[in-house]
Every structure is written in C-alpha cells, then in structure tokens.
Automatic annotation (TrEMBL):
Family to which this protein belongs: Belongs to the sideroflexin family.
Annotated TM spans: 160-180, 200-221, 260-279, 291-313
Pfam families for the chain: SFXNs
InterPro entries linked to this entry: Mtc (IPR004686)
Organism: Halteria grandinella
Keyword check for Mitochondrion: yes
Protein name: Sidoreflexin
Length: 349
C-alpha cells in the first residue's frame, strides 16, 4: 500500500473528479478503449492482496474528494496519483464484482479471458474433427462460458444462479449437437482426410456456427424471465418507470449479437486466417515455429476480439419512447414534468 501512496509532495497538481468518466462510452471507440483497458491480460496477474490495496486506495481517494467538496475546495491530485487511480480502476473493473464487492475467481475474470480461451480456441479449430474431440471441446467451451457468466452475473437477481445453470445445460447441449451434426453433414469422414489448411477452415466454420446457435439459446434461456415479464425502464432523470418486454427483446438480441461477434473473432477468424496461410505456404514448416506462429495469431485476435465484440453495444441500452409499449409513450418525468423521449435500461454484457 505504501508504494501506491508514494508521490512527490512538490509535484504540480491538477483538478480531478471521479464523476467524470475516463472514456466516452457513448461512442464505439470510447467503449473499445475502456474495454481494452479493463480486459488487458496483464490485469489478471495482480494478486488478491494487490487488488485489495487498490480497492482501499480508491476508497480513500473518493473519501478525500467528498471532504474537499464539503469544504468547498477543488479536489486536486498529482499526475502520479491520477495514474495510480486509472491503474486501480482498470484492475478492479475486471477483478471485483460490482454487486458483492468480492474478488472474482481468477478464471472467471474478463482480464483472464485470453489465457482461458486460448487453449479452447486451439481445440475448436485444430483438433481432429472426430466425434469425441468435437463433443469434448464444445462442452469445455460452454462450461467455461457458464463460469464466466456466473462470475460476472447480476448478483442482485435471486434466480440468476438457476438461470445460469439452465442456460449452461441448454447451451452445451445445443453447441455439441450443432457441431456434431454440421460436421457430419458438411464433411463426414472426408473431413478427417482434408489437408491441414482446409481442415482448419472446416473446423472453424462449424465451430463458429455451433457457438452462434448456442449463444442464442443461452441468451433466450438465461433471460427468459425478462422476455416474459419485461426489463426495467428508466427515464432521463434515472427514475424507474416500469417493465418493458420490447426493451427486453432488444437487450437479448443485442447480447446474442455480441456473443456472435465474439465467436467470430475468437474461433472463426483466427482459424480461417491460419488455414489460408497454411494453404498458401506462408506458415513455418517446423513444428515449434509453426506452433508459435499459430498461438501468436490466435493470441493477438483474442486480445482485441473480446473488447471489440463487447464494445458494439453500450451496457446501458437506449430505446425511444415511441418504440416501447403504448403505456410508456406519453409518460412524464416526475422531476420536471416533461414527457420522456428516450428510455434507458441495463442491457447486460
């Protein structure tokens, strides 16, 4: 903790506030920069004790800002202090659960995604497409995603654990079924005799289609309560208004699209790129250089793939009043009496 607090007392200071976000999350590139920072694989290397130190540091800084405001003073910090705050926010953002305040297990953190997904992507794209290999790698992938969903779940939702369990079962079953069926229909025994590059493209395509179907099933099952009862809407003043099934469908479709993009970035694209390079003779011929090249290509695509996919939509969804149910189209805000033009809702990741 002492290393976090160390700074030059004579260093120049500048105004700072926690209420001003570091990135503009209203734009795609603003969200992309945010997620690239949060999901940086190096963040996963922080120890639990280091995470607790950062958490305490942020709590202390927020308390100092409150005291400064109460005294009518401007809150000022050095560049070093601001740098530490940004570092702490990037690590805590993917390591600490926002609802419980508990440290998320290492393998369930978004910042650990590259290390956990890499062997799965290798198995999905490079393993010989036998029945056993297909079942194992798709089951393993959906098991990991179920853990990822649980670690980053909405802990205020009592039914979320049950929903994740049902969604995992449905997603794993649909992913395995689709992968086995597609590989049987599209390739059959001939897939086992394909040249390496073509087999990689075949594996990547069938795995992507299976994961896309599983993503849709996962979202529909896990969020079936929201689709049935609606998702809570808020007006521009953050006042709760009611539940909307139309907004719920928008949230689920956007979430499914995000996972579709993720499967494309983490399985289809790297497999096809490596397959094409193999067919063109651009990959190294030695086993070790080839393996290093393949892992490097996949690793780079995983590092950027997760942030690029999640950044497509803001976590805070928006829907115009004229597009929701009739009972919400003429609602007026309690704060100022003006008619609501745009509603907000928590889309989820």
């Amino acid at each position: 903790m002492s290393s976090l607090l160390h700074h030059d007392k004579d260093a120049a200071t500048q105004p700072f506030t926690f209420s001003k976000p570091r990135y503009n999350t209203e734009t795609y590139f603003g969200r992309l920069n945010l997620y690239l920072t949060l999901f940086n694989p190096l963040n996963s290397l922080a120890s639990d004790s280091r995470i607790k130190d950062y958490k305490q540091y942020l709590d202390d800084m927020r308390a100092r800002e409150r005291l400064a405001k109460e005294d009518g003073k401007e809150f000022r910090l050095t560049k070093h202090q601001i740098k530490v705050i940004h570092r702490a926010q990037s690590i805590l953002g993917s390591s600490v659960h926002p609802d419980t305040g508990n440290v998320i297990p290492w393998w369930q953190r978004m910042s650990s995604f590259v290390f956990c997904q890499l062997p799965l992507s290798i198995g999905l794209t490079m393993a010989t497409p036998t029945f056993g290999q297909t079942v194992f790698w798709h089951w393993a992938t959906q098991s990991y995603y179920a853990g990822l969903n649980y670690g980053n779940r909405n802990a205020t939702n009592i039914s979320s654990t049950i929903s994740i369990g049902l969604a995992y079962t449905a997603a794993a079953a649909s992913s395995v079924f689709l992968a086995v069926t597609l590989r049987k229909i599209l390739g059959g025994n001939a897939a086992l005799k394909m040249r390496l590059g073509n087999q990689l493209i075949f594996n990547s395509t069938t795995s992507f289609l299976a994961m896309a179907g599983a993503a849709a099933v996962n979202s529909l099952v896990m969020r079936s309560d929201e689709l049935k009862n609606g998702i809570r809407l808020y007006n521009e003043l953050n006042e709760p208004v009611g539940l909307s099934r139309i907004a719920a469908w928008q949230a689920v479709l956007q979430t499914s699209s995000t996972r579709l993009f993720l499967a494309f970035q983490t399985v289809f694209l790297p497999g096809v790129v490596i397959g094409v390079l193999n067919n063109r003779g651009y990959m190294p011929r030695g086993k070790i250089p080839r393996a290093v090249s393949e892992i490097g290509i996949m690793g780079v695509m995983l590092v950027v793939g997760l942030p690029m996919s999640i950044a497509f939509f803001s976590q805070e969804g928006k829907i115009r009043a004229k597009r929701v149910e009739k009972e919400f189209r003429e609602v007026k805000r309690q704060g100022d009496g003006k008619r609501v033009e745009v509603y907000h809702f928590n889309r989820g990741l």
